[in-house]
Every structure is written in C-alpha cells, then in structure tokens.
Amino acid sequence: MATVVEATRGAGSSVPVRHQGVRRAVRVGSTERAASVNGLDTARAQWLLAPAEKACALAELSTRLPALMSDARWLDSLREFISSEAYQVVTLQTDRGQLQALGLVTVGEQPFAESALLLVEAWWVDDERPQAACAWAAAVMAKAAAMDVEGVVWPFDAPGTAALRDAGSLAGHPLLDEPVPLRYAVPGLFTAFGAAPTTTALVTPRCTYLCNRNRLGALAGVPNEEADAFYRGEGRLAVPPWWQCGDLHELAAHIRARGFPTRAAGAFDGGVQAQLLQQGYVNQGTASMSRSFDVAAHYASNGGKQRGVVFRIDAAAMRARGPVFDAWLTLLAHSEAMMGPVEVQTFATIVRALGPLDSGRCLAHWDAVAQTLACRRGGMQREGSDFSSDDYLGPALAGRLRAAGVEEAAVERLLRALESHAMRSATPFAMARAIQVLPNGRTRDVALRHGYRVAFGLALPALRAALDGQHADHRQPGWDLTAFGYMAKTCRDQEVFSSGPIPGDAIVDAVVVSADGSPA
C-alpha cells in the first residue's frame, strides 16, 4: 500500500501513461488558466499536469480531506493519479495566494451521448464557501465546454455541492440532480462515485450535474397560431414615462392611440428562459398578453381591488409584426418527459381550484414524493395495482379537490405521470430518449429531460435577484422561485408574449371592468 510520499517518488515523465484513449482530450499545460466566467473569479484556477506538481497538490488534498488517507483505494491509486495525464488537479487561489479550492478531475465516458464527462473525484473547498465552490466549478466547466463534452459531475453528497445546486446555473450552464450513466476506462482505481473501485461496466450514480448548455439543444418558445384575440388588463393611471391619465376613460383612449410598450429594449427570442424571466419581473423586450378576458380583468382590477380596463387586441395584427409566443404551448413542448397535454390540463384544473400559489406548492410536493419513492424502489416501474394515491393525497387535500370538482381519475393520471417520470429519471436505461441528428449526418441517443425545469434553473439567479427587489404586490411565494410554481402561473395566466410593442392600431376595443372583473 503506497503512501503519498512513496507514490511521489519516481513519478516522472518516463512513467507509462494509461488512459491512452482520453489523454488527448484532456491534456492542458500546467500553467493554463480558465478565463473569467459569468463574473466569477476563475482566472486564478490552475490545471496541474506535471507529476511533481500533482504529487504536492494531492498530498495537500489528502491533508485537507483526512478520510482519503484511510481509504485503501485512494492510497493504492495515488501513483496512477500522479503519473496519468488523464487525472489532473485543479486549484483555485486568491490574488494573495491563499488556497480556496482544490480538486482531482478525470474523464469518464458518457455512453448514451457518445461523449465524455469530467468527473470530480475528490474536492475540497475552503469552508464550503459558495463563491469559491462556484468559481472552481465554473473554471472546470469552461474546460468541459471547450472540450465539447457533456459537462461536469460530482457525487450528489460531495461537500459544497449544495451551494452549486442552490445557484441553479453557472455561466449559463444548468445544474441538475439526476443519475448519470458513465463508464471508466481503467478498473481498480479510487472513485468517489461508489464504495467499490472503478469498473469498466456502466454505472449510474446520483450526481450533481453541471450540464454543458451547448449540448442540450434548443429551448425554443412555441408561437400561438390559433387565438382569435388577445387581452391585456390595465388599471394604473400613471406609469411614468409612458402615461399619466386622470381616469380610466382617459387611460383607455391613451392606450388605444399609442399602444403598450415593451418592458425593456432589445429583441425577444421567445425561448423558455426569456418567457420565465418576463413572468418573474425580469424585464424583457416583450409585452405580455393573455388568451383570456377573465385573466386580463384580474390584472386590470389588481386582483379584485379596483376598477380597470381590459383591451382586446387583434391576434392576426400582432402576428403580422412578428411571432407571438404562447406560454402554455411552450410549457407543453418542454414538459413532454414529465407530463403529457392531458396531465398538464389536469394541473390547470387544479390551479383553477386551488389558486396558483397552493397548486404550485402541491405539484412540487407530489414530485418530491414521486422522486423519493423512485429512489426507494430503485427506479423500477411498478404494476398498476401497486400504485396508491394515498402516498400523495391526504384526506384534507383530496376533499378539497373533490369539492372543487376535480375528477379523481384525472388526479390519479397526473400522479401516475409524475411517478413514471420519477421512475425513469432514477433508471437511465428506462428514460424517454430521442435520436438527435448531428450536422455531420451521424446520430446520437439523448435523454429527454424536463426542458422547462432546465430553463428554470438557468433563469433562477436572475429571478431570485428580481424577487428581492420587488414590492409586496409582486412577492408571491409559491410561484416565484419554483419551476412548478411558474407552471401554475402559466396555467392560470394563459399568457402570450409579443415580439415587440403592442401598437395602438392592433387594439380593437377597451372595456372598463369593475373590481369583480365584470364589465362596468
């Protein structure tokens, strides 16, 4: 059994290098540094390749993580880690040379994607500080993106990974919690992704997965092509610098003449992330509308607190100026791995019964239950007779849904869909998959992830910052910082997004409504 010192001796350039298949993909010079990423201080991240440097760094890592020194796999693998170019050490220091983060990184095969992953086999972060963890991770992700591999993974329970998951995304790359299929090139070495040594068989550990955004595919919005009219409600008499009106009739005349501006300048691409940001009061280059008069009346009356005006907008006139993106259709398109149209429609019924706040929390709870059951049962699909709605529904909630007219059979279909998705997620071999055609004509097999949730993770930091700056009217816990809450808001609002301002000549008429939403 080799000690750190023994493994260091003789670790020079003449030592044969295993992992020949991955050496070219990973090789970087010992002085190479990752660029600054997304404002995070990654410029001082250093990749160590020279055996002597790696030996010193691994000795430091063993000191920082004492459990490694009592792990026979680690001690037996040190010589390989030092001599093989497939294993590299990444450090992050302050400008004064203080060590902030240190980790051992290698490459694993990602079979289904015909690609690779960077695996974090050992990782120390100073006091588990979120900024240090995120900066180190962003530096490694920059390398993964440059290599065009699938991303970077940590064991789910590795120290500091909670800070990564809380961040939601790094440098535009989403952070996911899911089982990741991977395969090692060399057996018998230390790995943090299981209690046994590495194996060349396929393994699927639960991981914190920093996913390469460039390999996810498009998260595009879906245009609305069918609505006869759109609606927008307004009850504010003064919105500087856009208007200053004395009463609702003056407001109606002003808007019909000049239209509605976008919340922000610039183009609006209509993608899932851009839609979520607009819904979360992170202003985008779009003007929101609804397919529902009642929803517009709700906003015009500020939730039943005042009188307001509902404007009817010609849908064809808006489409003539650019695509109008439909939040509902976009949700359906990017939730196919979790729920189909019928189940999402059931959720919309629950939203109407419970309201967006309670229903968002309800769906988040049901999903958590499904994920727990899936992990407990090893991701195995069960016979229908084994399903129990009691796992999800307490008597009070079940009674509340019945009283609101939500059919029990429809609720059960929704719960079964959530459970099936959780089971597939816990068993990668059973996950819904699609064939992607690459530019060179080759194909690869890719998992159908819940794209809506991925986009939400990308948008989360901006949504959280915007929420912190909102006044009470816009602080709506339940949909503000959860993907399921935003799904509930989408179901309620039936929202559509313009490609630019709403011109006055596209507005057909304006109706003053009472606080209860009825025409005054």
Description of the structure:
The protein has 17 helices and 18 strands. It has helices spanning 4-8, 20-26, 51-64, 72-83, 130-147, 161-167, 248-258, 272-279, 293-300, 315-319, 327-333, 341-354, 356-376, 395-403, 408-426, 451-468, 483-493; strands spanning 45-48, 88-93, 99-110, 115-125, 151-155, 169-170, 173-179, 206-211, 229-234, 238-239, 243-244, 288-290, 308-314, 325-326, 433-437, 443-447, 495-497, 507-513. The protein is an alpha+beta fold and 520 residues long. The strands form 5 sheets. The chain has an 8-stranded mixed beta sheet, sandwiched between helices. A 3-stranded antiparallel beta sheet has the order 9-13-18. The radius of gyration is 27 Å and the shape is elongated. The protein is 37% helix and 18% strand.
